[in-house]
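Pilot study result, target chain (266 residues):
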Amino acid sequence: MKKFVCIVLALCLCLSCCACGAGSYGVKTVLTLVEQEYSLAFRNDDGIYYYVTAAIEQLNAEGAVGELAGKWFGSNIVNFKKTAGALDKLGLPEERTFIIGVDINSFPVAYMSEGNYWGFDVELAQAVCDKLGWTLQIQPIEKENVYIELYSGNIDCAWGGIALDEEELAAGRYTQYGPYMENDIVVASREGSSVWNSLRLSGRNMAMPTTEEAMAALNTNEKLANRLGQITRLAGGTTECFSYLYAGKCDAVLTDTAALYYYNSH
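Predicted structure:
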């Protein structure tokens, strides 16, 4: 009888564990395709740089940046300086409209939903403007056009899911603040799935955004592109890709690490 009871308890434990695994929404990196970092960019010699960066560093010292990071990523994965009273040295700036250029395909850092802008960078930029007494205006841009957008006057700052061009940085075409976040482009799968490493991607179905950046990242690994089964490109971007993953319509997604932090904490 004891043996029978032990077997029953063991079976119950196994079923319980399986149920927990089935309900898990955890996601993990299977393969890193592109290593990248997000930064802010300003026109060279533009005094606005000092006010914005001082406001960020003061907000960080006050704990506001960490709170936003926890809200969006589950932990503080951003790296800004902390300077208490940083704005005291500069005095109050004049009122103005502060225009930031964002890549709206950068969920959960900067994106659009139902006609509104959302994301960690968007909320932090708004907090900066509240601190400075400015009005925030958001302008969608292509990240490869940072220099053009800045020097045409279309934006004051490139800020929102922007990985700056290394050649433009080396040439000193604009002023960088950061990098403040590592956000690699990766292939990811569900925790507990049979796709636990890159070799297990052979013949699997993958969902990915329709952006040029996503396609360029995929093309960095020719073997991967040839090894995969069906690749579904989704106009709905990151959120639609993860909906496919959770619904079992694909085995993996092409995404970035910021999105993994978001989905592992929400």
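One observation from the pilot: The two ends are 44 Å apart (CA to CA). A full batch analysis is planned for the follow-on phase.
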